[in-house]
Amino acid sequence: SLRCSQNSNLCCRKDYYVDFRDIGWNDWIIKPEGYQINYCVGQCPLHVAGSPGMASSFHTAVFNLVKANNIQASGHSCCVPTRRRPLSVLYFDRNSNIVKTDIPDMIVDACGCS
Amino acid sequence: AAAEPRCPSCGAGAERRLLEEAAKRQLLEKLRLRERPRLAHAVPRAAVARAVRRLQAAGARRGPDAEERGYEIISFAEPEPTSPSGMGLQFQFTHTQDQDVHILQAQLWLYLQVPRDLVANLTLSIFLAGGDGDTVGGNRMLLSERRLSAKGSGWRTFSLMPALRSFFRGERRTLRLELESRGDRGDVVATVNATHSHQPFLVAEAKVREPGHRVAKR
What we know:
With about 110 residues, chain A is mainly β.
């Protein structure tokens, strides 16, 4: 998947790390110290519709449909997360118990065009 | 947020604030918390470090399962002020009503203080005290009873299953345990060292079925 850079406005993954100290939550979240709140941003012109950041059979299928039906820009394709991973958190609850849990689908790993 | 034109770096500040607020909202929502917890009392770092080592030693790893979420919880005991035997422990739990909690295992960690010159066996009994429902003989139910060879003081673990399973299904948030230790000659030989450095704690592993996840019964 593309990581966002200055010289492209195509669909890509923008990385952003939130440190729990910066938001004053490090007193109740024991581990980790922070996490990546990445997000997807950028254009999805028709010629890349359906591509999760690299050529794939789904993209070819969508592209052929666009050509065969001569679809103008009626519908549009969006830049969305295509792969996420869990975040393991250790924190104090309000009774000062320590709770450990894995939060599924918490971190965006890859972006692509729907 | 619209970046203020006169201050190009403000855009970065606005984006940063936006993402930090988004991170807070996402964490609270995924942890099913209405607001960030305000700790009832601080837990000594040494107790936290020891307890986290137990969690790692347990090594219970589970893949993220959307149907059922895995939790491990460590609850530190508070002295039970009304305990007749003077060896009462109290644990506080909260879970949201619509969560379907299944306890997979629950272990009590106690630091038993045994007089050095004593070489004998002792029996340690753990009762679920107080509350309604399944009680035997007065208002308590035997959870665990074990004969221990009293080889000096140290940490001991006691499984509290399957009796504790029903506790977590109930509404109760306060778990009260009564401990009794009897030596072979009938005298009380072991005490629980509940000072901060040896605070007793309970390690429980649970699966929680999130509301709305109705498995179609076939």
